[in-house]
Design goal:
The structure holds two protein chains of two kinds. Chain A is mainly alpha-helical. Chain A has helices spanning about 15-40, 40-45, 50-55, 65-100, 100-115, 120-135, 150-175, 175-185, 190-220, 220-225, 250-255, 260-265, 270-295; strands at about 55-60, 65. Chain B is α/β, with parallel strands linked by helices. Classes of the chains: A mainly alpha, B alpha/beta.
């Protein structure tokens, strides 16, 4: 231990145990990342940078390019955020600013229960309602079927909404009552107070709520798997074309969830390519979560 | 006082964190093809009730999942709806794979109702090839309605997919890599085809009910159409018939032996028939 720690009770049990637990968590994380890097070395040697930038994934021809899957993940998450952010922030403003605190807690509890529903249940609901609805709605654009990136995005929007809403609500409640009172005292209406005082004050927390929602959207597997169609090598041409949103696609997670993982196992290069997808996904979500937590800390240092 | 509370809390937490993660009794684990799963799961139900055997049947990853999990020693019996390839054996040089033939089935090309009613009742090998390679994209090109072909490809690794590509291309490895929406188990395939207009997919023939999804006949070079029914599968005139197997590491022993012997018995073979497959005695 470092010499700066207080001398009294230096080795007491609680401290030792919590230190051990944290070391275990940290060690496990490091071990996992190391393992993933090590296991994916063959594919980096085989493909080089085109593993990340390549647009075709044909494992029998030993061609591994993940870009369409990254595209799928990003588009699905983007659709989810475009829908969930305005709704989530709107709900959060309503619960934190307009509802009496007792009602607010009930509403919040219900929303938090929503976020506890297993994702496979959302996936089943997606199959039951969303898929056919999207198919019917888009019929004139001739989608192949109802399993599209858009469907997956819509489903994810519902799934990340509770996360965004409840964290945004916390951030808004974190703005001190004195500031609101002062603003009202200066003659601002409630709406003006919200937009000129509360929202700017809570901005870092709101941002982090959105980013944590994004992290969840990127990592979500089974619900996406069930409605995304799992079609490889979907890359927009031209690049700004949104056409692919109404076609089946593949995300990093739906690829990893497929039975291709079973085929890959035993073939070092193919396996490395699959593990590499996991590594990239891990890095993407870790980066977003990290930024989210940093922003959420706000000025006084704790969320 | 306060200190002891904290301390016992810490001790309790420590005790919980040291609990062994899983200590369940050894069960007979079976995994693999969703096609073989139907009779296997029912056989497991019967043995659970009658002999108190502890059996877990799962269908992770289809036939390939079955092979790899037997290869890795994670399950005792694999369920296969395709023959074992040399590649599979090469992947697990230390494992002595033993196949037990339990019945026969066929892969049918199934279409949705609108295609069936639009007049497509049979396809040729060449037409399937053209569809698979993306040269034919509309049903009207092969005598059907003017509608885009929504082809759902079975995931590579599924027995159904292997049988299909083996027939069309002579060898699954020669099949071109394609990008279609993929489907997994039989149930998923049937539901997606049933709910999509212009849909086509490969499916175990016993799942083609003729109400929501329809099995196409295969038109041979002589112009004769062969449909995947029991008689044509048994005399092997339907081209995409396939064996169903149990896979074990070495000769089955213990509970695995009991289970396999039951499926091979008259009662077990009736279960195979009940789910629309051909029992061993039906094969000539």
């Amino acid at each position: 231990m470092t010499g700066t720690a207080p001398k009294r009770r230096e080795w007491d049990f609680t401290r030792l145990w919590s230190l051990g637990a944290s070391a275990f968590a940290l060690g496990f994380m490091l071990l996992m990342v190391t393992l993933f890097i090590w296991q994916s070395i063959p594919v980096w040697k085989h493909e080089g940078i085109s593993y990340v930038t390549g647009k075709s994934w044909f494992f029998r021809q030993q061609e591994f390019g993940m870009l369409p899957m990254v595209y799928g993940s990003v588009m699905v998450a983007a659709v989810a955020l475009i829908i969930a952010v305005p709704l989530g922030l709107g709900t959060a403003i309503f619960t934190s600013e307009f509802l009496p605190s007792r009602v607010r807690l009930v509403v919040k509890l219900i929303v938090e229960l929503l976020s506890g529903i297993p994702s496979v249940v959302y996936g089943l609901l997606g199959i039951l309602f969303l898929r056919n609805w999207v198919y019917d709605m888009l019929e004139r654009f001739e989608p192949l079927n109802g399993d599209t990136l858009l469907t997956a995005g819509l489903l994810l929007a519902v799934m990340v909404l509770p996360t965004i809403m409840t964290l945004a609500d916390d951030a808004l409640r974190g703005v001190s009552v004195n500031q609101r009172l002062a603003a009202r005292g200066l003659g601002l209406t409630q709406t003006e107070t919200i937009f000129s005082i509360v929202l700017p004050q809570a901005a870092p927390g709101l941002m982090s709520a959105v980013l944590l929602g994004l992290g969840r959207a990127l990592g979500e597997t089974i619900a996406v798997f069930l409605v995304v169609g799992r079609q490889d090598n979907q890359w927009p041409d031209p690049i700004y074309s949104m056409r692919l949103l109404i076609e089946s696609g593949q995300t990093l997670t739906s690829k990893l969830g497929s039975s291709e993982t079973n085929i890959a196992y035993g073939d070092p290069l193919h396996w490395a390519a699959m593990v590499g997808l996991g590594l990239i996904l891990l890095l993407m979500t870790a980066a977003i979560t990290w930024v989210g937590i940093r922003l959420g800390k706000g000025k006084d240092g704790h969320a | 006082m306060h200190f002891t509370v904290k301390r016992s809390l810490a001790l309790g937490l420590l005790a919980i964190s040291l609990l062994p993660l899983g200590a369940s009794a050894q069960a007979l684990k079976i995994n693999g093809s969703t096609t073989v799963n139907l009779p296997a799961a029912e056989a497991a139900e019967i043995l659970r009730a009658e002999k108190k055997l502890n059996i877990q049947v799962d269908t992770q990853g289809g036939s390939s999942g079955g092979i790899s999990m037997v290869g890795d020693g994670l399950v005792h019996i694999g369920m296969l709806s395709k023959p074992l390839s040399d590649d599979d054996k090469k992947k697990y040089p230390k494992v002595n794979f033993k196949l037990t033939h339990i019945g026969e089935d066929a892969v049918a090309m199934i279409v949705s109702q609108d295609v069936w009613e639009g007049g497509v009742k049979a396809v040729t090998k060449q037409q399937l090839r053209d569809i698979y390679e993306g040269k034919v994209k509309n049903w009207k090109d092969i005598g059907g309605p003017d509608r885009r072909i929504a082809f759902f490809n079975k995931e590579p690794g599924r027995g159904t997919w292997e049988v299909f590509t083996h027939w069309v291309y002579g060898d699954s490895k020669k099949a071109p890599q394609v990008s279609f929406p993929e489907v997994g188990g039989n149930e998923e395939t049937r539901n997606k085809v049933a709910s999509t207009k212009g849909a086509l997919s490969q499916l175990s023939s016993s799942w083609a009910d003729g109400k929501k999804v329809f099995a196409l006949g295969i038109k041979g070079e002589d112009g004769k159409v062969v449909i995947p029914d029991a008689a044509h599968i048994a005399n092997r005139s339907y081209p995409m018939s396939r064996p169903l197997y149990f896979l074990t590491n070495g000769e089955p022993t213990g509970d695995a032996k009991t289970f396999i012997e039951f499926v091979l018995s008259a009662r077990g073979q009736d279960l195979v028939r009940k789910h629309g497959y051909l029992a061993l005695a039906d094969l000539k």
